[in-house]
Specification:
By secondary structure, the chain is an all-alpha fold. It has a domain at 10-67. The chain has helices spanning 10-24, 30-42, 48-67, 77-85, 94-123. The protein is elongated, with a radius of gyration of 32 Å. The model has no long low-confidence stretch (mean pLDDT 80).
Length: 124
Amino acid sequence: MGTTETPMDPQEHDRVEELLAGYALRSLSGKDAVEADRWLSEHVPVCGRCRATLLAFSETVADLALAADPVPPPETLLPRLHRELEPRTARQPVGRWVGVAAGMAVILVTGGLAASQFLRAGDL
């Protein structure tokens, strides 16, 4: 890579490793996520120890995902999925009729104003 590792305080390395663990688990948010992004872009590329730690954490997370026993879904899940996925052609979308009504109201108001102006012009 051509970059050299810069000396770092051991407590800082502990903090980086803590953030890398959270990063591998995808559990960081807020200030921790911002700090991890900074370390990942500035420090990890030049630090062999942190690159190896990130790789080890990532492999461990992958192993954990494969080691978990499957859990049966709740009995209510399948009927809920069926309800969510069934076509909704039986009812018309409400928004469509609201748009038609609004369009008709605009036409009536505009027509009334035009007729009013026409009558006023005739009186002049």
